[in-house]
Structures are given as C-alpha cells and as structure tokens.
Design goal:
Cytochrome c oxidase subunit 2, transmembrane helix, copper ion binding, binds dinuclear copper ion, cytochrome-c oxidase activity, single chain, five-stranded mixed β-sheet
Amino acid sequence: QLERKWITISLIVIGLFVGIITIDALFHGVNPPSKVETVDSASLHLNKEFAEDNLGVQVDDKGNVTVRMVAGRYSFFPKHITVPAETTLTFRWVSMDVLHGVHIPMTNMSTMIVPGYVAEITTTFPKPGEYPMLCNEYCGLGHNHMWSNISVI
Ligand code: CUA
C-alpha cells in the first residue's frame, strides 16, 4: 500500500537524523569549548582588598595592558578607570550576580557578561576622550542607570 510505503520512508528519514546527531555527538563530544574560563561568582565579594588586588588597570613586564572589571547590579566596578589611547587593551569581565552586557559606543566593545564565565575582549581606543560604558542586557529595575566611565588619555 502507498501509506505503508510513506510511513517506511518517514521512519528511515527520522532514523537518519537520529544517526547523524548520535555520530556528531560521539565525534565532536558534548563538552563545552576548551578555552572557556569559569569563575565562582559567589567568591566575588566586593570588599576593599579584592578591589585593590584584582580590579582595574594592570600592566605586566611585557607592557600588556589588562583591565579587570566586575559587573553587578547596578554598576561596573571600578566606577571609573583611566587607560592609554592607541594601545591594545585586554578587558576581562565577570558578573557578580546576573547576566549583564557591556557596550562602549563607537568602539567594538560589546559583549555579554554571563555569570560564572570570564568575558574577554580586546579593544583599542584610537583617540583620547571620555567614554561611557553602558549595560546593554536587561538586568533589573536599575538597568537603565547601570554605567561607568572610561577616561582615555
Ligand atoms: Cu546590567 Cu543591564
């Protein structure tokens, strides 16, 4: 019968899909990408020592500039940072509570900050000036007021 033929064909197609998914899972693994760094959000208490030891702008012996910041309802910490212009900056973000975003208008800086993960982004400011840093993921009632400043010198 015609109906039985179609049912058979459908089953074969479904079988193929399941097969492809299974083979894909076996060969590519179901693990997350290996370069993702995780962080324990609960440990990010914003006490004074933590901020002094870990946050802000740091330059290593090779001259690489790393900026470490924490996003939390409703600000970025530190509230204000100063960085050099025409320099490659590596920003490393973590969230201390919920999903936030960070966006600096007129730059390539726009990323989600997912709790538990380090969001790393590299950028360069071509010109000195004052830049606002805004949250662009809705994170609660204070979302519209979540921002901080960057002075580029
Ligand atoms: Cu943080 Cu919106």
